């Protein structure tokens, strides 16, 4: 992603360089793929983000590179079970009754909308996490943070959809939990290009790095004992 000069100037003034991570030790790195579910990727669903279908191939490539280097792949999926109770403000105020009912019905764990897009190359050795809120790192949302800590992971590559909602929310919380956090530009999608770009401008200015799939893969330092894949 090519950042405007004013963004580059402010980032360099703050941290001394545009991209702070020359190497990404694969043994301590996870790619966290957010919400690439049928509810968010397929036509006809209320949560459809059509551009998310265009990032399936880049996500598969990124996950393959991380696996091959000995890193971790985590698939994060949103579930709506009981969300009208534990997230009553969102469902009762921020959604119309019709939209609330559709979300509750089509994003349950046992609904087709919960499933990952069929073209994603998830492996049996990958990890799966279910979240309740936009951010997988928010208190009570998921087990993502303790899972990563237990694996010795301190570096995250964030991919998925939607860039400026669940992906950015998870990434910001991860950064503030002291993870080195990188948004992977061409493995992220928002409803409009403007939303995607504006989110990454704000992210770059204050929170972490932005790299492409190729740039992230080139920085991976293979683990001494690569993790086996199925």
Automatic annotation (TrEMBL):
Entries under Gene3D superfamilies matching the protein: Isochorismatase-like
Instruction: Report keywords, A-Z.
Output: Hydrolase
SUPFAM superfamilies in the cross-refs: Isochorismatase-like hydrolases
Q: Which residues form the Isochorismatase-like domain?
A: 29-214
Q: Which CDD domains match?
A: cysteine_hydrolases
GO MF terms on file? hydrolase activity
Q: Which Pfam family, any one, appears in the UniProt record?
A: Isochorismatase
**Name of the protein in its database record:** Isochorismatase
Task: Identify the species of origin.
Answer: Achromobacter arsenitoxydans SY8
